[in-house]
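Name: LITAF domain-containing protein-like
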Amino acid sequence: MNIDKYPYMDTTGMAATYPPPPPYMQPHETVVVTSVPTVVVRYNCTDTPTITVCPACRQNITTRIERSPGLMTWLLCGGLALVGCIAGCCLIPFCVGSCQDVDHYCPNCNHHIYKYKRM
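Structure predicted for LITAF domain-containing protein-like:
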């Protein structure tokens, strides 16, 4: 048997291999790719109201802030109590805004945007 004459024939006698199928034309398709821009907003919120874009309502806003006691407030209270300010002076950090954490909210939809923690 001549291998050059029959290149797709199995010489072992076990099974015959077949030639690959003829090439065919695929239908011509037009693919339109649309992408939605991904906006990554990095909040530079500190303890003051910040101008930003609300992720919920997509409006340009100046955040509304609310202060709440955080770790720094409690540590200062405990430190003042250890020093001897037990007669109510250890509660001063709860009245000082710069000792507390700050929550930033959207004034339009009241969405919580960011929490600024002192510690």
